[in-house]
Task: structure prediction
Amino acid sequence: MNSESTPRIVAKGNSALGPTLKTRLELQAMREAGRVVAFAVRKAFEALEQGITTRELDEIARGAIKSEGAEPGFLGLYGFPATACISVNEEIVHGIPGDRIVQSGDLVTLDCGVLVDGYNSDYAVTEVAGHSTIEKDCLIQTTSESLEMGIKAARQGNRIGDISNAIEQYVIPRSYELVREYVGHGIGKRLHEPPQVPNFGPTGQGLELQVGLVLAIEPMVNVGGWQTRILDDGWTVVTADGSLSCHFEHTVAITEDGPLVLTVE
Ligand code: MG
Ligand code: MG
Result:
């Protein structure tokens, strides 16, 4: 789940609270939440193949989280009914796991969160089930590398806009579009905290990055246009033109030594 900007899922009043800076102890809990979510998503993707349902992938992720003594961060949040958002092909974010059977060539995004000691992690990866194409591999590579560019800009003294611009400057010259209506966000005791972290915009704008700030940085990259729409299930966000979309996300702490990616095993 991404998007503090989705009007329907933003708790009113969140924006009244400023960004939170985490202590070393809080960062330890978030690091553990990040480790567990990376583990859970890896276990689910190990089972990704033609014929598996998105519900089965979700159950694997939930089992992996429980086996580590942690709790799913998304389940029940804003009423979301599953452990992971699973979004396939033209689905961008917030896909609901269910009876859908994965086909060879499907572009599958798992976006998942974990709670440890009341602290959240948020992490997303896109992979192709079975047979891929150059088009899909390039989309995945560009999205993943644009996230790395955003993370490199997540340094004390920089501003939110420097992250946004680093992602945009990497993606747009490669002839893709970036989703505009859903953005990254601060994260901590709440999954979605200020500030918003857009994947586009000028450098030098927005909140100055301080040590202890933790951000979920999450480019969503479309083969076609940037416009989106929401399916009748009220959750699943798809590209308006039906083009493929890809999503990667890490939870990243600003430290004195630079950006620290928390969502790794
Ligand atoms: Mg997410
Ligand atoms: Mg997010």
